[in-house]
Amino acid sequence: MIKRLATGTILGCAFALAGTYSIAAKAQQSDEVTTANDEQPKILFSADEVDYNRELQTVTARGNVEISRDGRILLADTVSYDRSQDVLTASGNVSITEPTGEVTFASHVELSGDFKEGIVEDIYVLLDENTRIAGTGARRSGGNFTEIAKAVYSPCKVCEDDPETPPLWRIKAARVLHDAKEKTVEYEDARLEFAGIPVLYSPYFQHPDPTVKRQSGFLAPSFGSTSYVGSFFELPYYWAIDQSKDLTLRPIYTTDEGPVLASEYRQRFDSGEMEVVSSVTSDDTDDFQGHIDAKGRFDIDKTWRWGFDAEQASEKTYMSRYGFGSPSVLTSNLFTEGFRGASYSRVDGYYFQGLKAEDDRDTTPIILPHAQFHGQTAPAKYGSYTTLDLDALSLTREEGADSHRLSAKAGWALPYIGSLGDVTKLSMSIRTDNYMVSDVSRDGQQDYNGYAGRILPLVAVDWNMPFVNNQGSYHHIVKPIVMAAWSPNGGNPNEIPNEDSQSFEFDDINIFSHDRYSGIDRAEDGFRTSYGLEWGVYGEEGGYTSAMFGQSYRANKGDTFEEGSGLEDHLSDYVGRVTASPNKYVDLTYRFRLDNEDFSTRRNQVSAGLGEKETLRLNLDYVHFAEDAGSDEFGQREEFYFRAERQFSEFWSGMAYSRYDLDQNDPLEYGFGFVYEDECFVFDGRVRRTFYEDQDLGQSDEILFRLVFKTLGEFASAAGL
Asked: Helix, strand, or coil here: 588?
């Protein structure tokens, strides 16, 4: 910015005055002048009065002087140019507006014709986002360095009622040096003042100038304390290696666990990008510990791309202990995939690391390869189309069952829209699954080794008929839905292991699916039908209320679905959903599963958002799984989550939250926080207490806060009690 102050703006003024010295300007006259060289840009110039002294070779413009060139505008009371000394002078309410919007104010400007030397008195600069820098004077030397004396920098607004009151924060320095070639800004004897009170001092401070987007250097430090590592201090260093890659080193010193070196490497290529986050440390037994989280995505051509994800940790609780996240499983994946029309192909491999206490690496599967293909033809006569799905998978373990699978499914579908608006779709398919397995556990039998397979034809019909009624500004829609499907019984022989269909939940989302299993290893068999009703009211302003209710019937009451799944009997449980969002103040969703005999709740999920933050915003979540709900992931569970937010004033806001286990009558976590934010500063404080216990990590109390000096950077701290 300082560089722009002493460049083409004032140079344009010199050309304007020197090129127009023979013109007698009239009061409030505006002329357009073109220099002798046709390649020079046009200059617009106006003033109340213009004088030319041939003996002294000076041009002087007085009164409302305005000169515009290359998008820059100079305003001043008086502007003069001394041709003999090659000196340009502007004084009295001087302002220079740059094309980018920055404005420089000064009482007096004096520069040499080549602009390598010069002075500016009482400089005041208004940058982007209302950031300001001021000084008693500025000096330019050597055509490269600009020095500002007794400078003050701040993005904070000045109090209109009392302009003498110091801003919320500012930086004062005895001297500021801007190096236009190296694009750096250096401070000498710099101090940070908060509400006029000095809080930090540095004899020397440097940062890139505003034109620099990336430059190597130290980042803002952070420090604090946690229950797991004690007190810590972190001072990151950013290394801009070149235009395509950079590296951030994050050395962290901890009092209880020793030093940690974390890093983040990023690189962009012509065909993609890569990011690697990692850390390493030595524990109290001198064993190395660490983690890696890497991701890459690369285009091969317009159809194909490949990529990878690499996630590993040396210990199950390492990432939680050092604050690198709390995932339950780490997934490493190498893949290539292609998209063409309605077809999709993918080949990949997976390696998993479970971080739960019961997870064992020896029994965790390795999948290599897993190949998939889905293809669909364009609509043919009557709108019919065919599909083809192929799937090949090889799954192995150090201990436990191995499975090698090849599946193929060919399908045909015919959609039809009747004269009454009813929509019918006929689907037929045949699927074959072939397995070579080993060590497959079977109840009451020896483990199975060898070939297993099945052929599953499927015939299905989907039908719905929407009824629409418009009443003023509201639209009512009632839509009955029916699905019927058939495939032979006995589609799940016990020689086939269940690897990809273990997580199952019967709900309003999959009730009308032909096969409600998400994977291939398990298949829904026999005759089944689902029926339900959807209803909705929609307003022109965007508000709506909708509901859905349905049930399924299965002719075969077998062991396809487990007890508690909701599909173990002929008649399934009832599932449904109610959503109400009539305006921006109310957002309610209720999902449920009711017992098919006594309508007792087996699953309840409620999410509600009420009010607005300016007054009071409440977010409520309730979840209830009955003991016989059939969930492999959760047993009996009843939890309640509450969060309240309030904007107390223009700058202050607060929030409080709590998560409670209603089944055990124990809190899981709770906390509160508050935020102050204005145009130049953010203070965010939070208190949190958790009651979770994860292996060797127990309960924790934490205090976290964040200080952000806008346009400078961020200072963050965390303390655990």
From this structure: strand
